[in-house]
Amino acid sequence: MAEKITMPRLSDTMTEGTVATWLKKVGDTIKTGEILAEIETDKATMEFESFYDGVLLHIGIQEGESAPVDSLLAIVGKAGEDISALLSGDAPKVEETPVAEVKADAPVTAPAKTEIPAGVKVVTMPRLSDTMTTGTVATWLKKVGDTVKEGDILAEIETDKATMEFESFNAGTLLYIGVEEGGTAPVDTILAILGPAGTDVSGIAANYTVGGNVEAPKVEEVKAEAQTEVTSSTPIAASNPNERIFASPLAKKIASEKGINLAQVKGSGENGRITKSDVENFIPSTVSAPVQTVAETSVEAAAPAKVFVPNGEKFTEEIKNSQMRKIIAKRLAESLFTAPHYNLVIEVAMDEAMKSRAVINTVPDTKVSFNDMVIKASAMALKKHPKINSQWREDAILINHHVNIGVAVAVEDGLVVPVLNFTDQMSLSQIGAGVRDLAGRAKSKKLLPTEMEGSTFTISNLGMFGITEFNSIINQPNSAILSVGAIVEKPVVKDGQIVVGNTMMLSLACDHRTIDGATGAQFLQTLKQFIENPVTMLA
């Protein structure tokens, strides 16, 4: 009797798996203990062995495809055995016998499935972050007909965390584009098809589906490229309708806002790509003089003594939400409306911290910021007050005894939170170097998804923008977030005398489910002591 094999759960946190390699093909004889496939989990790529003897009759998940745990992976049984009952309601029938695949209204000689020619590779929407479910193509850097080398950047893809470059792992000609610029599609749907030039991939695009729930788009031919470019979300007028204009998503956005024709802008980036600075520094060759409307003329002639009323035009701009903006909205709303927030504020004297920082930065190749000092002090305070370093679960409160501090970094499309792992074990200079590295790569879109995971506490600093005090929304699943304001010089009372001092406001947003007010207040008192006496952080 045929046996169904489902996607196994190979780790405690695995919810889906990706078939990296099939070591058996349909028709092969299999013995118990033989390796069927290599499966990528959320932690590693592992070998998956068969627990049955028989013949491999069906493969339900092709190489490179992902599917949830318990999805149909394969069917093993006797040679020639009818498996139609087992396939009922499952994923698209791949690698079945011709009899099972032929539709009732189709010619008997025409098989339902489309074979993928040798050398052709289907590229699917990648999962570029641990929480990514859909991706948006911000920019295609290649067009249909272009030659693609292994390692070339195919496109820029917006995830729920950042806009990231997606490179090709295969060489060939770009034969088909499945998701146009600005288009959004679920992970693992067809993104593109690569292969030898001139290969007909219309059958693949029409019949190839992933997971059985995505209908493949129609084949895009080279001659249709001009029309595709004209209908892009950014108005571009090129002298040659077939000419491709390369521009970053931000450059396109700024050009659209300013009404700049990108065809007139000279790009300074790689291969002439137009960047943000190119658009901002662009000076049009001619400037049209303002035209006085008939309405303006008649108003001035008829009633010159009346109060002047500007004759303007109402203008509203609609900007499509990026994937990052959608996820930020979703998660912050969930955090604010599910976690009962409250805020505690404390004022910290910064005079000693300023003196200590000046001395520390006299050491060659050392650069420590006030934010680095706050991070170090927070890490040490969290070790003394571990309840702040916690997470809420319906059945228990999870106390983290390791300290991983997330540092909020503003990027052009939104906000990301790279994580300093084991922050309490780092020196001030190591924290400074780590933050500069993570922030720099975040702004240049080079941050890895794994570098934005696992935070136990978050710090957001707007002091450099002159903001003296603010409250943040907790970055779930953390229980607290610290908001850091600017250092302000003002009169303070010291030893009964009014003197000039420097102070900074700290605001701690807490989840009342895990942190009581007294606990949060004690944490802030400890944090204040560390910052006001920096030498204690070196003990």
TrEMBL record:
<dbReference type="InterPro" id="IPR000089">
    <property type="entry name" value="Biotin_lipoyl"/>
</dbReference>
<dbReference type="InterPro" id="IPR023213">
    <property type="entry name" value="CAT-like_dom_sf"/>
</dbReference>
<feature type="domain" description="Lipoyl-binding">
    <location>
        <begin position="120"/>
        <end position="195"/>
    </location>
</feature>
<dbReference type="InterPro" id="IPR045257">
    <property type="entry name" value="E2/Pdx1"/>
</dbReference>
<keyword id="KW-0808">Transferase</keyword>
<dbReference type="Pfam" id="PF00364">
    <property type="entry name" value="Biotin_lipoyl"/>
</dbReference>
<comment type="similarity">
    <text>Belongs to the 2-oxoacid dehydrogenase family.</text>
</comment>
<keyword id="KW-0450">Lipoyl</keyword>
<protein>
    <recommendedName>
        <fullName>Dihydrolipoamide acetyltransferase component of pyruvate dehydrogenase complex</fullName>
        <ecNumber>2.3.1.-</ecNumber>
    </recommendedName>
</protein>
<dbReference type="InterPro" id="IPR004167">
    <property type="entry name" value="PSBD"/>
</dbReference>
<keyword id="KW-0012">Acyltransferase</keyword>
<feature type="domain" description="Peripheral subunit-binding (PSBD)">
    <location>
        <begin position="246"/>
        <end position="283"/>
    </location>
</feature>
<dbReference type="InterPro" id="IPR036625">
    <property type="entry name" value="E3-bd_dom_sf"/>
</dbReference>
<dbReference type="InterPro" id="IPR011053">
    <property type="entry name" value="Single_hybrid_motif"/>
</dbReference>
<dbReference type="InterPro" id="IPR001078">
    <property type="entry name" value="2-oxoacid_DH_actylTfrase"/>
</dbReference>
<dbReference type="Pfam" id="PF02817">
    <property type="entry name" value="E3_binding"/>
</dbReference>
<dbReference type="Pfam" id="PF00198">
    <property type="entry name" value="2-oxoacid_dh"/>
</dbReference>
<dbReference type="InterPro" id="IPR003016">
    <property type="entry name" value="2-oxoA_DH_lipoyl-BS"/>
</dbReference>
<feature type="domain" description="Lipoyl-binding">
    <location>
        <begin position="2"/>
        <end position="77"/>
    </location>
</feature>
